[in-house]
Amino acid sequence: MIQNLEDTTTLHNGVKMPWLGIGVFKVEEGPELVHAVKFAIKHGYRSIDTAAIYENEEGVGLAIREGMQESGISREELFITSKVWNSDLGYESTLAAYETSLKKLGLDYLDLYLIHWPVEGKYLEAWRALETLYKEGRVKAIGVSNFQVHHLKELLKTAEIKPMINQVEYHPRLTQKEVQAFCLKNNIQLEAWSPLMQGQLLDHPVLQDIANKYNKSIAQIIIRWDRQNGVITIPKSTKEQRILENATIFDFKLTTEEMAAIDNLNLNLRVGPDPDNFDF
């Protein structure tokens, strides 16, 4: 069982990645973003997840530099993720997009680089670019995001290097059991985005009953459920109290019955786009 915020899982290439991080989806450039990331770093977070399409890589980079200086930690202690956007999928364009993200972040390398969405006809060439970056030592780990089982199967037909991560929408209303089982079988680590369903689960009676038992918030219960399911999680918040609260999940453990009760909330319901039917 994970004991603290610094605990990591080992990806199939030997790279260690924190189980819990902070996401910055929909957080605009500016003081609020910089403060949130710096605050998270100060209080033990080591994993930060951004993306080209979030248009906040420069602010994240500034927060990383200031956070390292103020907290006295090194770049090697952090785990930074970004993602290539759909319009840049392709071999040369993905390589160029990586360089753009590095420049905006002000970093020499990323710990994890992901294909953001499985755009049909484009993601295989983009994956070849990620393999090049990985083989050249430009990035520590590579992976995908929003890939369903059939996307992963198609990718694995030609991939020289298997994805280390598949980051998907994952919460009690969308448990993605088929994707999770496939990733587990193929040693691809599952990672959750939108673990709290953008706040839509924060008044559910089943979750509230469990939260009351442990004197925890519903958000803490869901993040704990993720942890016990072996899923990396990156909840987004810019509020200091929430950032601290989201990390306070190591002093209790859900029972088998409680885990099953949360699993049973699944409705295959998404708050984000369907990877098989999206238009960006």
UniProtKB/TrEMBL annotation:
<dbReference type="InterPro" id="IPR018170">
    <property type="entry name" value="Aldo/ket_reductase_CS"/>
</dbReference>
<dbReference type="InterPro" id="IPR020471">
    <property type="entry name" value="AKR"/>
</dbReference>
<dbReference type="InterPro" id="IPR044500">
    <property type="entry name" value="AKR5G"/>
</dbReference>
<feature type="site" description="Lowers pKa of active site Tyr">
    <location>
        <position position="83"/>
    </location>
</feature>
<keyword id="KW-0560">Oxidoreductase</keyword>
<feature type="domain" description="NADP-dependent oxidoreductase">
    <location>
        <begin position="31"/>
        <end position="266"/>
    </location>
</feature>
<feature type="binding site">
    <location>
        <position position="116"/>
    </location>
    <ligand>
        <name>substrate</name>
    </ligand>
</feature>
<protein>
    <submittedName>
        <fullName>Aldo/keto reductase</fullName>
    </submittedName>
</protein>
<dbReference type="Pfam" id="PF00248">
    <property type="entry name" value="Aldo_ket_red"/>
</dbReference>
<dbReference type="GO" id="GO:0016491">
    <property type="term" value="F:oxidoreductase activity"/>
</dbReference>
<feature type="active site" description="Proton donor">
    <location>
        <position position="54"/>
    </location>
</feature>
<dbReference type="InterPro" id="IPR023210">
    <property type="entry name" value="NADP_OxRdtase_dom"/>
</dbReference>
<comment type="similarity">
    <text>Belongs to the aldo/keto reductase family.</text>
</comment>
<dbReference type="InterPro" id="IPR036812">
    <property type="entry name" value="NAD(P)_OxRdtase_dom_sf"/>
</dbReference>
